Amino acid sequence: MKTVFALANTAVSVSDSEWAAWKQEHGKVYNGDAEEIFRHGVFTANLAEAAKLQEANPLAEFGSTMFSDWTKEEFKKHLTNYVPGNSSLVPEMDLSQLPEHVADSKDWTGIATTPVKDQGQCGSCWAESAVEQIESDLMLSGGGEVVLAVQELVDCTASGAGSYRGGCSGGNTGPAYNVVQSLGGLERESSYPYTARDGTCRFNRQEAAVTIGGYQSVGRGSETAMKRYISSSGPLSICVDANSWQSYRGGVLSSCGQSVDHCVQLVGYEGDAWKVRNSWGAGWGESGHIRIAIGRDLCAISSEPTKVTGPRVVSAEVQV
């Protein structure tokens, strides 16, 4: 396992060959010289910031990624877009039922998770995280692996769903769960494909594959409680500060902000590092994941941990 990465070059200049190699790797083609010059400048600025992040995170690797020609405004608009809700109203799980013993490591990847998702250029992280959690809790309840429709939550609202949620313009996981309950379920990805853009709600209750009974907060404000849950029970939906993730390539994050802007899924831990599943495709980070040091609430990781209750596969009898 990787431990310490070499510090990045702190120079802010980027050679023509380095720029050309990066463009070729990521299939980048720009519309004229002006756009090329602009994106080259953004790329250079992002690599300079990556060098600073590297110094603050010696156990991680920062550098060029597929997002290195995106401005900070584009990164926030297309990849984050968390909108706060009233988390104080979320019912709390009774943690007394959790085992006191905590395993040295736990990883639910592939056991209670579907493949890493890719939200594309749509601020649907909140919907991705909610759907991932429903999928995981369904698997843990014996319902099997079902890949569910994120696009349904991007497109659909429901009366009484509570709090703001605005498709690709952002939202949070609580209202997403409420929409699933109000509509009467989630369709499969195969019947309601993801488009990465806002659309008109076309939910068909007869196509609903999964329903949920509700959701709970699990150990909010306590990494210790969250670790007890992860150790014994399954993944958690979480919302975090991802401002420093644009140039993350691998390793363990040891420095992070507290301004929550993104929702993801906490899928395990090893030693003193959390394993977090992102929704920017398997080509980002460590096969779509990031590791974050445990114990200092880095990235505000304990701000909104949730799970769903009563997930079940909809039977054919219910769908008629």
Task: Report the helical percentage.
Answer: 25-40%
The counted number of beta strands is 12
Given as residue ranges, the uncertain stretches (5+ residues, pLDDT < 50) are 1-11, 316-320
Based on the coordinates given, report the CATH architecture of the largest domain.
Answer: Alpha-Beta Complex
CA(first)-CA(last) distance: 51 Å
CATH homologous superfamily heading of the largest domain: Cysteine proteinases
Overall mean pLDDT stands at 91
Query: What pattern of helices and strands is seen along the backbone?
Result: HHEHEHHHEEEHEEEEEEEH
Number of domains: 2
- Broad CATH class of the largest domain: Alpha Beta
Quickly give the structural class.
alpha+beta
Rounded to the nearest angstrom, the radius of gyration is: 20 Å
Summarize the structure.
This protein has 320 residues and is α+β, with helices and mostly antiparallel strands. The protein has helices spanning 16-26, 32-56, 72-79, 125-140, 150-155, 173-183, 223-232, 316-319; strands spanning 60-62, 105-107, 186-187, 208-211, 214-217, 236-240, 248-253, 262-270, 273-277, 289-293, 306-309, 312-313.
Description:
- With 320 residues, the protein is α+β, with helices and mostly antiparallel strands.
- It has two domains: 1-69, no CATH class; 77-320, Cathepsin B, Chain A (Alpha-Beta Complex), CATH 3.90.70.10.
- The protein has eight helices and twelve strands.
- The chain has helices at residues 16-26, 32-56, 72-79, 125-140, 150-155, 173-183, 223-232, 316-319, and strands at 60-62, 105-107, 186-187, 208-211, 214-217, 236-240, 248-253, 262-270, 273-277, 289-293, 306-309, 312-313.
- Strands 1, 2, 6, 7, 8, 9 and 10 form a seven-stranded mixed beta sheet that branches. It has a three-stranded antiparallel beta sheet with strand order 3-4-12. It has a two-stranded antiparallel ribbon with strand order 5-11.
- β8 and β9 (273-277) form a beta hairpin.
- α4 (125-140) crosses α6.
- The longest helix is centred in the N-terminal third of the chain and has 25 residues, at 32-56.
- The N and C termini lie far apart (51 Å).
- Residues 1-11 and 316-320 have low confidence and may be disordered.
